[in-house]
Design brief:
This protein is an alpha/beta fold. Helices cover 42% and strands 19% of the residues. Strands 1, 2, 3, 4, 5, 6, 7, 8, 9, 10, 11 and 12 form a 12-stranded mixed sheet that branches.
């Protein structure tokens, strides 16, 4: 009986493993390219800066002959537009690309349907959405950029604490955390670095009277033009924006995934699937990595000094709920705008 029992358990375990293996791989389905060509176009709302999306768009359109109609804004505005259209019953998007926190809020409201691009099977398991709805395709590390002509080599920041030096008062630029979801998330996640004193750090940062911008994207251009010395933004911008820019290689770099999702009511679902697969493919991942992006395809790094060290030092952020974001926005309004 003992031997029979062990064999039964072994057989049951083998069948269970096979079942879960088949289920996992059933999620990843090759898109129908011919049906995608009949769609003719794909409409994307996203946060990817134009110079990066243009590279993907050119490669995709050349390969498949399918037009990409792209609208870009900050994560907050992308989410607001998508939700507004969805609630009105007139969603105009096929694919949404944004940070995971924003995507999770839209996923909760039912905007997206399940689709797993086959090439995303090459990505680390820890970044995969268990429901197969969100597809992480790149990561966005947040840190300190600075103008190398205005900041002397010996003064270049090495840690977040360096931003609190009195000499940088009114010389820092960053997104407005009361308006920009990603920045609110970043400040909230400082607890991973500062522990219980994270809010104390935020208050000290606010006393530096930083120049607040709409989102991460304008920060490097503001620095390059000499309208700020230091800034909090995405590190990949150091190679994507022309100008005298450097970045601080910190031992802990707060990072988030950037996810794609297929609309539940996509007008062009097949074209949307082909685009998502292209962005996750080796070709697509190499294309954006060569332009400075941190991608998830194993062994591919951006053309950026110390990129491997940046990857090693990444600390992935948690995602606040919608209610937590509202509370954070109110709290940050008191901190950054109180007179």
């Amino acid at each position: 009986m003992k031997t029979f029992g062990n064999r039964s358990l072994f057989s049951f375990g083998l069948l269970s493993s096979l079942f879960f293996f088949l289920c996992a791989h059933a999620q990843a389905q090759s898109p129908d390219v011919e049906a995608a060509k009949k769609d003719g176009k794909v409409v994307i709302y996203g946060t990817v800066v134009p110079q990066i999306m243009n590279l993907l768009q050119r490669g995709f359109e050349k390969k498949y002959g399918i037009k990409v109609d792209y609208w870009r804004a900050s994560a907050t505005k992308v989410m607001d537009r998508a939700l507004t259209e969805w609630r009105a019953g007139r969603p105009g998007f096929d694919v949404v690309i944004a940070i995971r926190g924003a995507q999770l809020l839209m996923k909760k409201e039912g905007l997206f349907t399940r689709y797993v691009p086959p090439s995303s099977e090459n990505f680390p398991a820890k970044f995969k959405d268990k429901d197969g709805i969100l597809t992480a395709w790149r990561v966005t590390p947040v840190g300190i950029l600075y103008n190398t002509e205005l900041v002397k080599p010996g003064e270049a920041p090495k840690t977040l604490d360096d931003l609190l030096d009195p000499k940088w008062k009114k010389k820092i630029v960053m997104p407005d955390p009361t308006q920009h979801t990603s920045t609110a998330q970043f400040l909230w996640n400082l607890e991973k670095i500062k522990g219980e004193r994270w809010l104390e750090y935020v208050r000290a940062l606010a006393k530096q009277q930083p120049h607040l911008l709409e989102s991460m994207a304008p920060v490097p251009n503001t620095l390059a033009k000499g309208e700020g010395h230091l800034g909090i933004t995405y590190l990949q911008y150091v190679t994507q924006v022309k100008g005298p820019l450097g970045f601080a290689l910190m031992d802990k770099i707060l990072t988030d995934t950037n996810d794609m999702a297929l609309s539940s009511r996509a007008a062009n679902p097949n074209a949307a699937k082909v685009f998502m697969e292209y962005a996750c493919s080796l070709e697509g991942q190499k294309t954006v990595a060569e332009a400075g992006e941190f991608v998830l395809y194993s062994g591919i790094y951006p053309v950026m000094k110390d990129a491997d060290k940046v990857v090693s030092n990444m600390v992935f952020m948690d995602n606040p709920t919608e209610e937590q974001l509202k509370k954070l926005s109110a709290e940050f309004r008191q901190i950054f705008f109180a007179k």
